[in-house]
Amino acid sequence: MAPSKQMTLRSSDSALQVVDPDQTLKASKALLAHMKKASKEKAASADKKNLLAADSDDETALGEQPIWLTLTTKRHISDTNRLKPGKIVLPHPLNTDPEVSVCLISADPQRHYKNLIASEEFPEEWRKRITRVIDVGKLQAKFKQYEEQRKLYAEHDVFLGDSRIINRLPKVLGKTFFKTTAKRPIPVNLESRNKPKADGKKEKKPKDDEARSCTPAEMAAKIEKAVGAALVHLSPSTNTAIRIGYAGWKAEEVAANARTVAETLIEKYVPQKEKNVRSIYLKGPETVALPVYLAGELWLDGEKDIVSNESEEAKALAAAEKANIGKKRKSLDGPSEEAAPVPKKAKKAKAKTAPESDDSKLDKEIAERKAKLKKQKAAAKKAVDI
């Protein structure tokens, strides 16, 4: 009998195993039902009810509440803050409001991109939404003051930045735009794709920015994708939250976006992919987190992530902690009143004859903490083995 072949899952298939469609749909239905119920209870228990407000206003407010997908990992995803957000194209776009105001920050010159938007090939619905086009040079010249930057921030709902100049925007716009992730410029590539020649070779990119810019139809398609995409803001932590929908949506739409975002995150942004994923949740602004996936193992690699008390690393950490505690104890035991300056010779003599501080009580506390931590590790290991 021939030996059977062992089949291994690809990374995308393993991501599908982590994100269960049925569990995602159940969590979406339960979350939407809970948010609707909580909104009705909050409106009914209000002390002063606005009689002039219509019921449609309450429904609109509920429909605008965002829904977040939270992914936690066993180890950090990123080491540093990234000011440039990533994009995940969703099956159901986030921003479909026809009255949304978009500001496009382009490369020099801005007149070329204004002409592309004014072209007949550019869709009329998106021409109305793009209310301002400004290049990075004029942006830096006109909006130097903090008040002008705040005014620009308040005038538009979405900001788009050409991917060629997106890294220059944090210095130009400052903390007005980059203090939070609400209206950070979304990168959009306004360059045209290289068309292959007849013999299969690609053409070289022209040096002129106008010559290598995209057509009006391509530009509109890229802007539409960027405005409706989910934004990924990675921070040096094990937690990443991404907006995937709103409370006024259907459960199937929220579930579809949740699956797409989770699978793309695991495939593209999480090191070691599904092995590093600890949990996936869905939550609203004021709700508890509903689990979609929970990992069976708490650590990525038990031998590396858990340090035994007898190891050299644990002894070094304990010695460093003891030294730091001794320094703090010495500083606390020092005189509170200001003393007269002591000569250098007297300082050296005092340093030679100074007795060592008594840290017996602190050593006892450290030993008790170590014993307590050892018991907690043993209990956790026992729970994982079960």
UniProtKB/TrEMBL annotation:
InterPro entries: Ribosomal_uL1-like, Ribosomal_uL1/biogenesis, Ribosomal_uL1_3-a/b-sand. It holds the Pfam family Ribosomal_L1. Residues 192-212, 353-365 have a biased composition (Basic and acidic residues). Residues 188-215, 323-365 are annotated as: Disordered. This is Ribosomal protein L1. It comes from Neoarthrinium moseri.
